Structure prediction request, 471 residues.
Amino acid sequence: MFFHKYASPKIFYGFAGKLIPWFAGVTSILLAIGLYQGLFVAPPDYQQGESVRIMFIHVPAAWLSMFAYMVLASAGAIGLIWNMRLAEMAATAAAPIGASFTLLALVTGSLWGKPMWGTWWAWDARLTSELLLFFLYIGFMALQAAIDDPKRAARAGALLALVGVVNIPVIHFSVQWWNTLHQPASLSTINKIGAPAIHPSLLIPLLIMALAFTLFFVTLLLVRLRAEILHRERYTGWVTELVKP
Amino acid sequence: MATTLVGTVWCVFRRDLLIAARKPADVATPLVFFAIVVSLFPLGVGPEPAVLRTLAPGVLWVAALLATLLSLSRLFAADYADGTLEQLALSPQPLSALVLAKVAAHWVTTGLPLLLLSPLLAIQLYLPSEALGTLLLALALGTPVLSLIGSVGAGLTLGLRGDGVLLSLLVLPLYTPILIFGAGAVTASATGLDPEAYFSLLGAFLLVALGFAPWAAAAALRISMD
Prediction:
């Protein structure tokens, strides 16, 4: 396969360097459009008022927090199964980004909860599973930080991530059984005339923001992956050559 | 005798029990910890029977979780330090089966004593006596899952610095479903509801954990011993 060579950290380092400006550019444009649409153009909600605008950050952040974990776990699995170094590095690089999105989702959710539910924090199912997801990220990072040998760190982290993936649905469904206050997902709720329950004036900025967040994630992942490559390969000839003053 | 799979598994199981019997203090420590943690709650929240009765299922389960966690480092650490674990990994029998034997021995020396001690502490917390049977059954189904999931974490953190705190960070989030349904069963039966659904779910967790955890723990041990 022609893209095989991109699995080599050295070649991928240069390739990622070329990709980053493009992803960063498109991310900025989409973020600008999405934020303008969401914060200025979209109408206030008839129940939630202006607070609905928090959703344009909160919902994409929550999606990305789960997406990033899937990326982390898939990269970890690829690294574990095919012993591919680039995938191992990608898992390590994805973890802090995913944790940040999780924290962002928690904080924005809390800010939204105060005017809407009248409380900063509620032991609601989705809030709780998001919090536990945050702990899973922290555990992954702490485990990798505690292991000095990069090979063992990568493999142990990958195994933990896979155990986490099996557990996430179980945890989610457990806390759902336990307590639910959060509103049901609006996008998958279809009303009687077959349209999504969320109005297009809110839906379109939301989807733009989701796309922008995803590209933002990819951009950050590439930047962090490049740093990780340099770190892991710091004793190789090409890195020495590259960083020579 | 120990050449067949069953023979080897039995041998490992017996050996771990024997070691535990020779060092009874190791077995007693998590139990005492369990009793102390439970006894601290009335001191913290006040001695009102109504409050304690509401808190009892959660307190007992959280204390059982922490006591199990405390005992997890014992699971592989000594065998890792003296090289026994490497011999086990080199044996012709699958490592996951041997891990299962060690986990079973761990449960007999930790989960089972916790379970036997729990009614006493439950009475201290004014848990209605109708709920005692539920508590025992829920712990009987739940504590083996705690040992099983914990074995994966213990395998991953083998020989690392600060492994106790790290282990709790890895394992506690994974324990939440057991806590929810375990405490849920006791609460349900203390308030006169039928806890059967909780038992079914705890049983399902136990079966899934029995199938996957030894295998994952064996993989974790192989990673840690590389």
